[in-house]
Design goal:
With about 375 residues, this protein is an alpha+beta fold. The protein has 2 domains: about 280 residues, no CATH class; about 90 residues, no CATH class. Helix content is about 25%, strand content about 40%. It is globular, with a radius of gyration of 20 Å.
Length: about 375
């Protein structure tokens, strides 16, 4: 049996607020949690909030991070803190962290995975959203735990400042790090992932690229190709790029689904080089297409992802729902951002505990359990035991 609960607070942080948040979680749960998740903004006294939460919950088996917006059963919020906890005899939880993402993401992923039991089938990870390479982290984890492990989570945010993000491992507050919570035991999970962006125009070949920087598409400067597509909006690059991400054509980057495009959001442009830096790897030689989306398609994608996750879980009752959605979706949705979570709740049920945050990038497998690092995408896990 699995019991889960969440608690939320909006306002200035302190140890006393952390105590209140933790006490509220324990009271709702009815017992001490076996594992906890904390997601919050980057305001002052985060360390005091964390200390109060752990003291009240009597459980330092906690991971989490700072965000670009928080999600809970109370809805979408900013400048807040959300806390989730699970109590169960069926699942064993194992937490760990690894540092040095900026130096070598694949090494950090491998170091993290080496701290977990080999029988892990489901792993939640939160990495620094400003350093490291999400795809490399996945490769490192899978080199130890194998291709069959499900990796779900997101990259930490800092309220859109793009200065410094924080990751939590128990009482430790880290940066340039990845934290993880591995699940073993008797439990079931389901995942769903959708974006809502659709391809436009013909596919183009990435003829020169290095990691996340694309220099040429079809032998032409990548920036020129984007500018021709955007027309009068080209002078708003890279900001406008969140509305028109690049999509890797199915069959690229280990993604085989015919209707799924792995998205990459623009991060910066170099006008002298004619290049564009994206928020994730784009392999040289891959085929890509420009994409676009609107309110309706983005919200419908969240609902679709929830349906996929519930179907993937099967007949097991849902104990808790984890949602990690890209901050680019929040930018495009604007005042309608809260509707994304409402669409998900309408599928999983309004009384099921739900927790998550808006990320700078997402980890989640697509069909066939192929783990991928995503941009501009909503990812969902439902857990039952």
């Amino acid at each position: 049996m699995l019991k889960a609960a969440t608690a939320a607070f909006k306002g200035e942080y302190s140890r006393e607020i952390g105590l209140q948040l933790g006490n509220r979680l324990v009271s709702t749960l009815g017992e001490i949690p076996a594992a906890c998740w904390l997601f919050c903004s980057t305001q002052k006294r985060v360390e005091d909030l964390l200390r109060g939460v752990i003291e009240a919950c009597e459980c330092d088996n906690l991971i989490g991070c700072t965000t670009d917006g928080e999600l809970s059963g109370d809805g979408f919020s900013t400048g807040s803190a959300v806390l989730a906890g699970i109590a169960t005899d069926e699942i064993q939880f194992h937490r760990a962290h690894a540092s040095g993402l900026a130096r070598e993401g694949e090494v950090a992923g491998r170091q993290l995975a080496e701290k977990f039991p080999p029988q892990v089938t489901y792993l939640q990870v939160f990495s620094d959203g400003l350093t490291g390479n999400g795809s490399a982290i996945i490769r490192g984890i899978q080199s130890v735990l194998g291709q069959g492990v499900c990796i779900h989570g997101g990259t930490a945010g800092d309220d859109g400042r793009f200065e410094r993000t924080l990751q939590f491992d128990g009482t430790k507050i880290l940066t340039d790090a990845i934290v993880g919570m591995a699940f073993t035991g008797e439990f079931k999970f389901g995942t769903g992932v959708q974006s809502g962006w659709s391809p436009v125009g013909i596919a183009k070949r990435v003829t020169r690229a290095w990691e996340n920087v694309v220099y040429e598409l079809n032998g032409q400067p990548a920036l020129e190709v984007y500018e021709r597509f955007l027309g009068k909006h080209a002078n708003r690059l890279p900001a406008v790029g969140v509305e028109y991400p690049l999509g890797l054509v199915p069959g690229q980057a280990d993604v085989e689904e015919e209707d799924f495009f792995l998205l990459r959001a623009t991060m910066s442009v170099n006008r002298d080089q004619g290049s564009i830096a994206f928020a994730g790897e784009i392999p040289e030689g891959s085929l890509v297409r420009l994409t676009c989306g609107d309110y309706g398609s983005i919200l419908a994608a969240a609902e679709s992802a929830a349906h996929h996750a519930v179907k993937d879980l099967g007949d097991i009752p849902i104990g808790i729902v984890f949602v990690y959605s890209c901050m680019a979706r929040k930018i495009v949705l604007g005042r309608r951002t809260g509707e994304e979570l409402e669409r998900i709740k309408a599928v999983v049920g309004n009384t099921v505990p739900i927790v998550g945050f808006y990320t700078y990038g997402e980890y989640c497998p697509v069909k066939g359990r192929q783990n991928c690092f995503h941009n501009e995408t909503v990812t969902i896990s439902v857990i039952g035991a």
